[in-house]
């Protein structure tokens, strides 16, 4: 089973407003066992304090107390008395109560599992020694949706290989799930890409594993591939294998439904 990671990041291209609104998730996808795990981290900016607006910093109109003016003539500053001018006051900070914007980091982890494949066979649950039994699987491309950090998230699963273990030591792999004899337009017991011939009478269990490739996208971005595949097991299928013998009868099963072999 392949284990892989792929990361798609768009945070560096985000504007200040998009970062403030939390629209810049940094997403990655991991194919792990039978599941794709999407994780994302995001930085959210909160504006800092822009300072007091009540006029405290220098005699504004917002209710602060202004320093009263000085009559330089009365105090003898620069007037006829010839006193020395006082030293200028130190400048006030531009914004003594301001604070910097605050960055908050959040993360999320969500698992996405594909639909379980199913398998069947014809004849249904029965195989005849020396004749082909046709196995058919149901699995198709589909999209699983969810939410990641408040953004829409989707994973698209596509079946790429069907691996059978027929229970008698033999197996087979095909690129598709096969089709019924009727859909193929061929007679019963015809060999197909997904058929198997049992050579020994007995009771067996057929196992099927379907391999899926996966792609993901978050927040409406483009599809990105997840390296590797996921192996997902289908339902186990009991198979009864028997010999068939021919006997002569007086009537067929239409004429005598209760007859031997009907």
Explain how this protein is built:
Helix content is 5%, strand content 43%. The longest helix is centred in the N-terminal third of the chain and has 5 residues, at 16-20. The model is unreliable at 1-13, 55-64 and 72-80 (pLDDT under 50). It has a domain at 115-242: Immunoglobulin-like, CATH 2.60.40.10. It has 262 residues and is mainly β. It has helices spanning 16-20, 72-75, 181-184, and strands at residues 4-9, 26-32, 35-46, 102-112, 118-122, 126-128, 132-138, 142-148, 151-165, 171-174, 195-197, 202-218, 224-233, 237-242. It is built from 3 helices and 14 strands. The strands form 3 sheets. Strands 6, 8, 9, 10, 12, 13 and 14 form a 7-stranded mixed β-sheet that branches. It is rod-shaped. A hairpin with a 2-residue loop joins strand 8 (142-148) and strand 9. The chain starts with a strand and ends in a 20-residue tail after the last strand. It comes from Cryobacterium roopkundense. This is PKD domain-containing protein. Residues 158-210 form the PKD domain. InterPro entries: Ig-like_fold (IPR013783), PKD_dom (IPR000601), PKD_dom_sf (IPR035986). Residues 31-86 are annotated as: Disordered.
